[in-house]
Amino acid sequence: MMRMFKKMALLSLACLAPACHAREFQNLDFEGTTFDFELLVDNHPYSIDAAYDIQTMIPGWSLRTETEDGKIWGERTLGQWGNFLLPSLDDSPRTLLGHIDPSLPPGWISTDGYQGEHFLSLENGRGYDFSDPEIYPLPNFLLTSVAFQTGTVPNEAKSVLIQTNSWDLTYEQVEVTPENPWGEIEVAVPGFRLLFNGFDVDAQLVSIADYPDVYNPLPGDSDHTQQNAYWAANIESITGLERELAIQPPAGIHPWTLDFNAISFDNILFSTMPTAGRSVRVPEPSAALMAIAVFSAIASARSSRELLVGSA
Fold first, then answer.
1. Which of 25, 103, 126, 175 could make an S-S bridge to 91, C-beta 3.0–4.6 Å?
2. Is 126 exposed, middle or buried (0-12, 13-18, 19+ CB in 10 A)?
């Protein structure tokens, strides 16, 4: 009986291990789309079903919206997702797979600074409570747009990088010195959130040239200093582990413009080069996993005692 329990416990532990579900992250540069953007020249996207199909537009990715307290409001892995290509007429969240050719619709978003042909844009929006149709105006709440997928962090990866123009400069108070009589320094702050299993990375503005294993410019490429910036974060704590990778704007509305927060980004890369700073948080083991480990240890210890008694 105990041997059977031990075997079951070990099998359970093995099935919970990342190797059982190992799969690579997909389409991290958004070039995997099979949508023909030329269709948009003579056709309104509302008449093209493929323009709203997630696996046509961004294969490998899924989309969801979350309330400000992090609860999932809507989620879609396959099939149609509203407001994919064009801004809607209302305040619904929207997603855009942009094309860098400004002659191809939609042309209202900045495409400068990205490589390849495509990048992704996410914009927050507003949801409405239709539970009581007699209430007018309808109660509403803010929603955050999230793009996500699950995969295994490469075994040798020490850093994750993302290219984006969604960042800003702020000022930090420091000691006043003759060299710095104002007592302030400029600090770059990300205008996006990159998360693994719900935990934010500690992203820092970097030079892509400092990551030679992933910086492979082709002849004719513009200098990296003329491209959108790269941000990097330490992920050594989750190397080799399966994680949900999620990207989203900050929740809510921009405090200065009062527009919904929005981001655009491209080229998510895993590098073997280290990045300074705090590594992404690893959650405590679940109660179920700890219980299996404890019972496995007990079974192993009892089995060892039985062997000792039998040999005496």
1. 126
2. middle
Strand partners, 266: 163
Neighbours of 63 (CB within 10 A): 20
CA dihedral 67, 70, 73, 75 (to 10 degrees): 130
CA quadruple 84, 89, 91, 95: dihedral, nearest 10: 10
Token pair of 13, please?
A: 């532990």
Q: What is the pTM of this model?
A: 0.78
pLDDT score for 311: 56
Q: Which of 265, 243, 279 is nearest to 158 (CA)?
A: 279
With beta carbons less than 8 A apart as the criterion, state whether 97 and 61 touch: no
Residue 66 CA neighbour count, 13 Å, CB half: 19
| 143 bridge partner residues | 67, 125
Helix/strand/coil for 35: coil
H or E element: which one contains 51?
A: none
The most confident of 169-178, 201-210, 295-304, by mean pLDDT: 201-210
Count CB atoms within 10 A of the CB of residue 16: 15
Question: By the 8 A CB rule, do 162 and 207 touch?
Answer: no
Q: Report the C-alpha gap between 106 and 102 in whole angstroms.
A: 8
Contact 167, 217 (CB under 8 A): no
CA 56 to CA 95: how far, in whole Å?
Answer: 14
Torsion on CA atoms 219, 225, 228, 229, rounded to nearest 10? 120
Name the residue with tokens 């041997």.
Answer: 3
